[in-house]
Amino acid sequence: MKVHVANHPLISHKLTVLRDVRTDSPTFRRLVEELVTLLAYEATREVRTNEVEVTTPVTKTKGRKLADPRPVVVPILRAGLGMLEGMSKLLPTAEVGFLGMVRDEKTLEASTYANRLPEDLSGRHVFVLDPMLATGGTLIMAFHYLIDLGANDITAICILSAPEGIAAVEKEFANSKVPITIVTGALDEKLNENGYIVPGLGDAGDRLYGVV
Ligand code: URA
Questions:
Q1: What's the DSSP call for residue 107?
Q2: CB-based burial, 75-90: b 16+ in 10 Å, e otherwise
Q3: What is the pTM of this model?
Q4: Strand (E) or helix (H) holding 143
Q5: CA 16 → CA 28, 134, 201, distances in Å?
Q6: Residues belonging to the active site
Q7: What is the SS3 assignment for 36-66?
Q8: Ligand 1 pocket check: which of 189, 203, 212 to mutate, most ligand atoms within 8 Å of Cβ?
Q9: Which SS3 state, helix, strand or coil, does residue 201 take?
Q10: Would you list the domain boundaries of the chain?
Q11: Nearest to residue 157, comparing CAs of 67, 97, 103, 86?
Q12: Which SS3 state, helix, strand or coil, does residue 35 take?
């Protein structure tokens, strides 16, 4: 498994405003969108392309275009939905699937409550959007789901990650034949006893959409 922790002054700046408890939901949503676009630039580094011929106003030349089948973007509901707009800016032609997952606040175990994905993901590069990689339970379950449907390359984009979560995903997929990459804005210090990332930014879903 590959882990890429972003190291860019613009990402650090935006993350610092995002973490701030005083940042309101509209600003939080805009920052998440901007951060995802920046992280997506790194996450799509290995996306498959084909050589094509293009005619410029001056001459014919060779270029590259995204290969078929197109990548699939899968936001994990609900907080991953806040990342979709930023990802779509960079990959507007990708297909979008949805996975609804929730974690039990006591056991911290993830379970699936909704799924809207292509039945066959053979040959597809899947980009999973989940802002907080905490215990890793949600991503582990989502990755198994996608691998079972045939995905042959998986990249997760997470705004923040905890070392415990990265280690759990790494252990679970140590022998996976499917290449797995995690691209994250920052690797935080730890998880607290409630499964929140420290220093973190609190509950990403609540901060995006307000408490319901
Ligand atoms: N989910 C969140 O929204 N925040 C955390 O810190 C951990 C999991």
A1: T
A2: bbbbbbbbbbbbbbeb
A3: 0.95
A4: helix 137-148
A5: 11, 18, 9
A6: 103, 107, 203, 206
A7: HHHHHHHHCCCCCEEEEEEECCCCEEEEEEE
A8: 203
A9: coil
A10: 2-49+66-209
A11: 86
A12: helix
d(CA 96, CA 92): 10
Beta strands in the chain, from DSSP E residues, in sequence order: 2-5, 49-55, 60-66, 72-77, 95-96, 98-103, 110-116, 125-129, 132-133, 153-161, 180-187, 190-191, 197-198
With a Cβ cut-off of 6 Å, ligand 1 is lined by 79, 132, 134, 195-197, 200, 203-205
Total number of residues shown for the chain: 212
Residue 11 class from Cβ within 10 Å (0-12 exposed, 13-18 middle, 19+ buried)?
buried
Q: pLDDT 10s digit of each residue in the chain, 212 long?
A: 999 999 999 999 999 999 999 999 999 999 999 999 999 999 999 999 999 999 999 999 999 999 999 999 999 998 999 999 999 999 999 999 999 988 787 887 878 888 899 999 999 999 999 999 999 999 999 999 999 999 999 999 999 999 999 999 999 999 999 999 999 999 999 999 999 999 999 999 999 998 76
* Angle, alpha carbons 182-145-95 (nearest 5°): 70
Please give the class, per CATH, of domain 2-49+66-209: alpha beta
